[in-house]
Amino acid sequence: MTVPMPWKDVAAPPAGAPGAAALPTRAKAKRIIPGSEYWKARKTSAAREYAEVLGVVAIVAVVGWSAPVSYHVFGYLYLLMVIALSLRVGRWPVLVAAVVSALTWNFVFMPPRMSFSVLDVDDTLMLGSYFFAALIGGQLTARIRAQERHERQREQRATAFLHLTRALAEARTMDAAAAAALRQADDLFSARTALLLPDENGSLTAHPAGTFRLGEQERAVAAVAWARGQPAGRGTEILPGDGLYLPLLRAGQALGVFAVQLPPELTELSTAQRDLIEGFAAQIALLVEHEQLRAAGEREKLLEESDRLHRTLLDSVSHELKTPLAVLRSAGEKLTTDDPDRRVNLAGEIRTATRRLDHLVANLLNQTRLETGRLEAQLDWCDVRDLIGAARRAAGDAVAARTLKIEVPPDMPLFLADAVLMEHVMANLLFNAALHTPIGTTIRVTAGLDEEHRCVRLEVADNGPGIPAEINATLFQKFQRGPAARAGGLGLGLSIVRGFMEAQHGQVSAGRSPEGGALFTLQLPYAPHGAVPGDET
Q1: Which residues lie closer than 8 Å to 280 by C-beta, 6 or more apart?
Q2: CB contact burial 300-339 (16+ within 10 A = b; e otherwise)
């Protein structure tokens, strides 16, 4: 299972181009987590620490050689020196400082000078006490400093994860969350990072917000880490190199790769640094898994909805086909009668059933055109009277038993529309009005020009039961029918009306007519025409 990647086909814009600021870069990355310099390499050479210890001991010895003070003073000076050095160097250099300072104090300052011998028991006890005091004090100070460093690292880690979690929670999309995580990783590790996720073809694709630009060799190492589910690169036994590649593991499955290009001067990662990088990778893995679960849920919902619509369509079509097919079969069997009047009635029934089938098939085809996106409006200058007449003929017998009242102003201008689509729209509205009103009622069609809103308005109103309040929000959806609708129709008519109007940059709305029935209003953009082709002779 792969993660939908909206960035897959999006190339990073060049510097200075519009939208360039939308992608975070290392130079533009805002410092979010304070104290990130702590994670930079600051490894001090052990030889340098030992040299610093010996140098300080020697300096005190040289300066104090001719000082007119008691040799007891230098014991305090050396003790202070050991404590001070424990704030800078490690435990073993502190141990060396305690031993060397005790020997130097004895050899250089205690009488007899330039000798390790001690004249009395008091000096022997004092020298031994000094050695243990310096050793214990230095070691305790070094331990406290180490604990303070570990506490600072834990605080740094907790702060980093707090900021990361907050940024991921505020992100509205997978793309934004990945970009936020990479920005914080860049800043915290003082490094370049990249996030690689598998696409539909099963190959790793880098997120454009990453600042670690991977070449062919780096991508190969990332692919190995992803395939094996093990870290690769620097500090590992798998293809060591400049970068560190951590697979995003969840439930034993690698969902992607988090890559870090550490600074060249950082020759080795400490345990705390490694733990923090792996913690970031684990958080990003949770993000990717969550996105996969969300995408899987969306796909499942779409499949369920598709299956439901498929069943609804099959049920509706099979139901709608039964009646006209039964009429056709029955009329066809009785056409052999010798009664002329009977034959005329049977021919009328065949025409009615055929028109019903034609209307059903036309709606199915039109809905297919809308859903496949193959519908393109062919706009031309149209006369509203011609459109209403064509729609009336297309509705056929459905409106023959109703009174159709047409109100069009004499100065109604021509307007741009697709004549074929508008004929379907008007015919569907007339058929819908006839389907929901009793025989003998009036259907009113009006047209006019709304100069204030610069649009053409067409209205189809009836005096039937009106639109139930419970279906107002879903009136123009597929397969939507009223609770008291009569038999006939698939519930596609109004959905097709909306689709055809939107294809012409128009809109349709429904309301209540003054007579109490339903009122459907069509609006099309209007612009005055100049010379209409065919007007000039």
Answers
A1: 160, 164, 181, 185, 188, 258
A2: eeeeeeeeeeeeebeebeeebeeebeebbeebeeeeeeee
- Mean per-residue pLDDT for 236-250? 82
Residue pair 200/2 in contact (Cβ under 8 Å)? The answer is: yes
The letter for the amino acid at 201 is: N
Q: Are 244 and 277 in contact (CB under 8 A)?
A: yes
pLDDT attached to residue 166: 75
Q: What is the domain partition of the chain in residue ranges?
A: 46-155, 173-294, 380-525
Strand, helix or coil for residue 466: coil
Q: What is the pLDDT of residue 13?
A: 39
Give tens-digit pLDDT for 53-64. Answer: 889 889 888 888
Measured CA to CA, the distance from residue 15 to residue 137 in angstroms comes to: 57
Number of neighbours of residue 103 by Cβ within 10 angstroms: 14
DSSP string, 101-163: HHHHIIIIISSSTTSS--SSHHHHHHHHHHHHHHHHHHHHHHHHHHHHHHHHHHHHHHHHHHH
Please check whether residue 98 is in contact with residue 137, taking contact to mean a CB–CB distance below 8 angstroms: no
Q: Taking Cα atoms as reference points, which of 361, 492, 384 lies closest to residue 446? A: 384
Q: What are phi and psi of 139, to 5 degrees?
A: -70, -40
Q: Regarding the domain delimited by 380-525, which CATH topology (the fold level of the hierarchy) does it fall under? A: Heat Shock Protein 90 (3.30.565)
Please state, in angstroms and rounded to a whole number, the distance separating the CA atoms of residues 113 and 216.
70
Q: Which CATH architecture has domain 173-294?
A: 2-Layer Sandwich (3.30)
Query: Whole-angstrom Cα distance, residue 248 to residue 415?
Result: 60
